[in-house]
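To the structural biology subgroup,

Please find below the input and predicted structure for Major facilitator family transporter, which we are adding to the shared reference set this quarter. The sequence is reproduced verbatim from the submission form. If anyone notices a discrepancy with their own records, reply to this email rather than editing the shared folder directly, so we keep one authoritative version.
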Amino acid sequence: MPWQNALRIYALFGLLSAWLSYQLPRQRLSSAAKSPASPATAEGDRRNGARYAIFIALITFISNGTSTHLPEFISHFGLPVAVGMLWGFGQTGARLGEVLAGPRVTSLTLTRFTALAMPLCFLLGLSSTTFAGCAAGFVLGYGAINGLVTIVKATLPLALFSAESYASRTGLLLIPGQLMAAVSPFAYAWLNHRLGIIGGMWVSTGLTLIVAGLALAMVREAGKAQDERNVEYPAAAVDQPIAKNNLAEE
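Predicted structure (tokenized):
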């Protein structure tokens, strides 16, 4: 099938999604009056909001740039382009594993795991200079990470902020990530041209270390907020199981 037909099919699915979204009810739900947040809570929300926006923007930059130039990375190590299918296997397998794990995996736990796995995965990719087979492991592993990131993106705000402000706050904080999605393919093309494939991988590895640091900071602050809330309101829980926050579909 020509690639033009593939794009037409993709466009039709986009139109179908738009039509289904248009059918959703439009009424505004009433909400109970909320007391204003304390200065400490408001300051924590601002810090976590900035961290979350940068966290998602960097992940989007790395993921989109890497996936766009994935065939170039694979061919650089002499592997068949079909190895790129491992990305999809990893992505699907990771999401299936998260579903099977159910409430045992919380959004904060998944955020910590995903962020720490990113630099390790890129170090595996850098090992491809010694063992070409590591490139296949990188494709599979980062595909899995990319699948988990979509879940983290949707569920982490529920652990950081109030559920009432989820839609408005998350929509605003995801804007930098959307901008990075548009910029990253061109940025990675420039990086690969100037620094080579391996040089671009080292840049990505450095960025993933920043991502890991941001994730650990958010998880730590959210954990402290949860402890404080549980002392005041024992029945409350900030870090809800992901199974109850079924918002991970893109």
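Summary notes: The chain has eight helices and no strands. The longest helix spans residues 175-232.

Regards,
Lab coordination
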